[in-house]
């Protein structure tokens, strides 16, 4: 799952917004499928996705991801 989150971040940094969005959506689907397992990993993944959203210029999405990352 973290691979998809990092892919989203790297794509956002390189200006490939569509690719970043697709990778972020895949990561979120997988995180949600974890349903409570490994809470620390879920938190870290959401924080990486939040950073990717910030790089892509989506502050509202980043804020939502940070809020969801809180235990």
Structure commentary:
It is a single chain. The protein is mostly helical. It is 82% helix and 0% strand. The protein is built from four helices and no strands. Helix 1 packs parallel to helix 3, helix 2 packs antiparallel against helix 3 and helix 3 (39-55) packs antiparallel against helix 4. The protein is globular. The chain starts with a helix and ends with a helix. The model has no long low-confidence stretch (mean pLDDT 94).
Helix content: over 70%
Q: Unreliable segments (pLDDT under 50, ≥5 consecutive)?
A: none
Order of secondary-structure elements: HHHH
Count the DSSP helices: 4
Give the percentage of residues in beta strands: under 5%
| Content-based structural category | mainly alpha
What gyration radius follows from the Cα positions, in whole Å?
Answer: 11 Å
Biggest sheet descriptor: none
Mean pLDDT figure: 94
How many β-strand stretches? Answer: 0
**End-to-end CA span:** 19 Å
What would the principal axes of the Cα set say about the shape? Answer: globular
């Amino acid at each position: 799952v973290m691979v998809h989150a990092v892919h989203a971040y790297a794509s956002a940094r390189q200006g490939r917004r569509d690719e970043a969005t697709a990778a972020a959506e895949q990561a979120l689907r997988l995180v949600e499928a974890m349903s409570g397992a490994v809470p620390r990993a879920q938190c870290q993944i959401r924080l990486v996705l939040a950073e990717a959203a910030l790089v892509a210029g989506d502050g509202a999405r980043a804020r939502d991801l940070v809020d969801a990352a809180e235990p």
